[in-house]
């Protein structure tokens, strides 16, 4: 089983040269720590910044400079600031290439639910609905099962949806999976020392296994 | 030039009454109109409809309004930082319209720009789409969203001049410039108020035409929600 940091590290392998990327709150934020330094990429923060830099030193903390998770951050040479309408224009307009976000459930058709548990939890969708409706590539970072042991990879989502038929790839603590065009989770890679049987037993949706499934490779 | 200055926050909000619809700038606690919030708390008004991306935290920002039961309805996109909000919502004590953040921003922009409605892909196939017109353009589905306006827009800028021109700083800009355009009366509070002519016209983010009242805030706490530092 992968740690959160290892999930982030595996997702960082999906990042391509010269991409503009939006990272969601939680594990996706950690991906920034593992993007290879030879790749030129720009991280977008939907509260109005292109070019997110590292966390500030104590003496550099600026309350007027935060990311979408409300964490204090810095800018980089070449950063740009803008308002919220401009921010979502670049998101909906398809200018942001890659969106990485967390989820409570993903369906075998690529539907995603991550903003509400009726009667229990209402946090709101934030920018997630705009992002999943628009980005060219959407990768979900999440645990394979919920805390009480239920599979989060389902035939159909039971929670209120954030978007439909939008997720392309899922990286969990157990596996890397892709959504098949006709539906189903294609098992692409296993976490080290995790068997196909275990992944099968913890995937409630249709799991598609094509030949030998390799283990994930980390540098 | 038209002088937009008022004495202070109390003066700026004096005609805001029960049942008013307010837009309030800010993302989290960054760029919120702290002085107007403090002045409104003194007024003890009720049944407000508040349009704001977030609902503050339990003891700061709009969270203070919720504690006093001043709010009838919130129109927001993310409220995960506020336990009292979640409690009032789940108990049915508070009306809430949750919107995709880009939809909220664009509805406000449209309101200020004289565009009554627009189509967006955000929320298609979700409960956000319920009751809304769906149309297909170039093979993709979109839903219709209506413009938002408010009786008052309360915004916070870094610098402003007596003509109401505003400059924002960092990510404290967020919803503030949009809301400034969509209030019937827009109240701007600034950290530094200077005479008209002191700001470089090339650097103005919000032209003074959108601002009816401006004052320099007394002090800014600028509370940080997640203080993250590198070692």
Number of helices of chain B: 6
Into which percentage range does the β-strand content of chain A fall?
A: 25-35%
Order of strands in the sheet with the most strands of chain A?
Answer: 4-3-2-1-5-10-12-13-14-15
How many strand units of chain A?
15
Q: Describe the largest sheet of chain B.
A: 8 strands, mixed
Oligomer: heterodimer
**Outline of chain A, from the CA principal axes?**
globular
Mean pLDDT over all positions of chain B:
96
| Percent in helix of chain A | 10-25%
Largest interface: A-B, 54 and 58 residues
Coarse morphology of chain B: globular
What does the radius of gyration of chain B come to? Answer: 18 Å
The SS-based structural class of chain A is alpha/beta
* Distance N to C terminus of chain A: 17 Å
> What's the helix count of chain A?
5
Name the helicity range of chain B. 10-25%
Largest beta-sheet details of chain A: 10 strands, mixed
Distance between the termini of chain B: 49 Å
């Amino acid at each position: 089983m992968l740690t959160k940091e290892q999930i982030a590290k595996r997702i960082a392998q999906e990042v391509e040269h010269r991409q503009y990327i939006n990272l969601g709150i939680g594990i996706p934020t950690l991906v920034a720590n593992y993007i290879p330094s030879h790749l030129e990429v720009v991280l977008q923060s939907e509260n109005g910044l292109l070019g997110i830099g590292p966390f500030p030193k104590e003496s550099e903390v600026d309350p007027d400079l935060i990311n979408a998770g409300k964490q204090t951050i810095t800018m980089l040479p070449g950063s740009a600031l803008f308002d919220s309408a401009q921010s979502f224009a670049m998101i909906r307009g398809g200018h942001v290439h890659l969106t990485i976000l967390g989820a409570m459930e993903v369906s075998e058709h690529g539907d995603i639910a991550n903003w509400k548990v009726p009667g229990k939890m209402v946090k709101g969708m934030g920018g997630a609905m705009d992002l999943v409706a628009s980005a060219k590539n959407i990768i979900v970072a999440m645990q394979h099962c919920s805390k009480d042991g239920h599979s989060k990879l389902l035939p159909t989502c039971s929670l209120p949806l954030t978007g439909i038929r939008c997720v392309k790839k899922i990286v969990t603590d157990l596996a890397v999976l892709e959504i098949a065009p006709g539906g189903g989770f294609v098992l692409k890679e296993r976490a080290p020392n995790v068997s196909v049987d275990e992944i099968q037993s913890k995937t409630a949706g249709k799991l598609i296994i094509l030949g030998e499934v390799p283990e994930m490779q980390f540098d | 030039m038209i002088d937009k200055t008022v004495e202070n926050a109390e003066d700026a909000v004096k005609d805001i009454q029960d049942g008013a619809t307010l837009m309030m700038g800010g993302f989290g606690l960054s760029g919120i109109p702290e002085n107007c919030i403090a002045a409104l708390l003194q007024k003890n008004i009720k049944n407000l409809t508040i349009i704001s991306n977030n609902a503050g935290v339990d003891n700061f920002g709009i969270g203070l309004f919720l504690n006093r039961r001043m709010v009838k309805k919130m129109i927001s996109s993310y409220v995960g930082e506020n336990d009292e909000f979640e409690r009032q919502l789940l108990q049915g004590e508070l009306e809430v319209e949750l919107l995709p953040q880009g939809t909220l921003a664009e509805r406000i922009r449209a309101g200020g720009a004289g565009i009554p409605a627009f189509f967006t892909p955000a929320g298609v196939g979700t409960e956000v789409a319920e009751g809304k017109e769906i149309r297909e353009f170039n093979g993709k589905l979109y839903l219709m969203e209506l413009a938002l306006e408010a009786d008052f827009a309360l915004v916070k800028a870094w610098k402003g001049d007596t003509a109401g021109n505003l400059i924002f700083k960092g990510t404290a800009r967020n919803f503030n410039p949009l809301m400034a355009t969509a209030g019937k009366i827009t109240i701007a509070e600034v950290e530094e108020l200077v005479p008209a002519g002191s700001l470089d016209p090339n650097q103005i983010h919000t032209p003074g035409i959108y601002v009816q009242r401006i004052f320099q805030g007394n002090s800014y706490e600028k509370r940080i929600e997640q203080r993250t530092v590198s070692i």
